[in-house]
Amino acid sequence: MKVKAIITGSDLTEGIGFYGDTHHDNETMERLKQLAMVLEDVVFDLENLDRQVKDRREGSAKEIKWQLDTMRKDLLWIAFGEEIAEEVIKLLEEEK
Predict the structure, then answer these.
(1) In this predicted model, what pLDDT tens digit does every residue of 71-93 receive, in sequence order?
(2) I want to staple 11 with a disulfide (CB 3.0 to 4.6 A). Which of 7, 33, 43, 88 is the partner?
């Protein structure tokens, strides 16, 4: 049975932290592994969506493509900082 729920980023990271206690830190490691699997699934699905809208001319396809590109850039900035993110974005745009 599949159950759907509305969750937030905080829900996904709840309990993840450094506690300085082996038991609790091992639980953090387990949660991080689980979170990595969820995020991999999300990225995979979004890449499939990106392929679907690539080179499409419909307005909605262009909007979806713009949103996906914006999200990638925002995630790069958060993960790596502005300077590295800008370099990666520049490299990706040169590939096109």
Answers:
(1) 999 999 999 998 999 999 889 88
(2) 7
C-alpha 62: how far from chain center: 20
**For the stretch 44-57, what's the b/e string if a residue is b when 16 or more beta carbons lie within 10 angstroms of its beta carbon?**
eeeeeeeeebeeee
For every residue of 26-82, DSSP letters joined together read: HHHHHHHHHHHHHHHHHHHHHHHHHHHHTT--SHHHHHHHHHHHHHHHHHHHHHH-H
Token pair recorded at residue 13: 């990271």
Q: For the segment 8-64, what is each residue's pLDDT rounded down to a tens digit? A: 999 999 999 999 999 999 999 999 999 999 999 999 999 999 999 999 999 999 999
Dihedral angle sign, alpha carbons of residues 49, 33, 77, 5:
positive
